């Protein structure tokens, strides 16, 4: 059996909100079972659009114009809604950017963590409670009984994100989409959460698409990386190869701009304007991306 889990091929999309402006341009990327791939780019590069397409939650104002998105060989873009909802949350799960808004403020953590176990896995309340306790221990929450009884506002941001990670892994998904999961957290907590996601991913053998604007994060936890600009793949390959031997001037300039993660106060070298001019020229002419390996 092939170990290919996800194969996005020639994906293009436009924004109906912005007069048909292209937001993804012929994007291809693939992911093996258990692989962690960083999806990197600055604001507006198209990272969230790809993540939303994967989760089946593209807004109506975004229209896919071509391409396929095969998950275990089946195209998510043309799948019947019923089949899609069986996969979402179960085989493909999300760790959101901001756990505060992702959690329902009016429900205890236990209810939110056990919904999926009861509704999708048919567990009774007692088994679901036991599994929720086990999941909270796995994400290193020390007093899981207390946390299960708590409401989201009673927990710190880092604790809420640990709960979201437990929830994402609760149904043993094959793919987790982590959408800038440390943005809302302070730097020390960010490091712990990154380590935790990598640890959970390894323990469960789960593949992860890690959306970030930070190459420093990619260096820490991703096996491979796809760098986007203006909805186009600029460079992609194994992380070690791309970081050791960046071929595109934009990748080089981003690396020179420094790992922002764990050096938030470091003086950054901004990406020079001529690099953006070259990128825009390449997008206009449809230049090919650089693929390593
Ligand atoms: N709901 C929407 N409807 C139409 N177009 C959208 C919508 N959301 C985003 N876009 C457009 O899609 C393009 C890519 O945005 P996207 O959010 O995917 O980028 P991103 O790389 O995730 O940026 P960020 O890091 O800021 O989230 C932008 O030009 C944006 O204006």
Low-confidence stretches: none
Report the CATH C-level class.
Alpha Beta
Order of helices and strands: EEEHEEHEHHHHHEHEHEEHHHE
Number of strands: 11
Can you identify the CATH superfamily? Answer: P-loop containing nucleotide triphosphate hydrolases
Secondary structure: helix percent: 40-55%
Oligomeric state of shown chains: single chain
State the end-to-end CA separation: 22 Å
CATH architecture field:
3-Layer(aba) Sandwich
User: On the 0-100 scale, what is the average pLDDT?
Assistant: 92
Named once each, the bound ligands are: adenosine-5'-triphosphate
Largest sheet: 7 strands, mixed
Q: How big is the Rg? A: 19 Å
Strand order of the largest sheet: 6-7-8-3-9-10-11
- What shape does the CA trace take? globular
Q: Helical region count?
A: 12
The helix/strand class is: alpha/beta
* Total domain count: 1
Percent of sequence in beta strands: 15-25%
Structural topology:
Layout: E1 4-15, E2 21-32, E3 36-40, H1 47-55, E4 62-71, E5 74-75, H2 81-87, E6 92-95, H3 99-102, H4 109-121, H5 125-138, H6 144-149, H7 157-169, E7 175-179, H8 187-204, E8 207-212, H9 215-221, E9 224-229, E10 232-238, H10 239-244, H11 249-256, H12 273-285, E11 290-291
Parallel strand pairs: 3-8, 3-9, 6-7, 7-8, 10-11
Antiparallel strand pairs: 1-2, 1-4, 4-5, 9-10
The protein binds adenosine-5'-triphosphate.
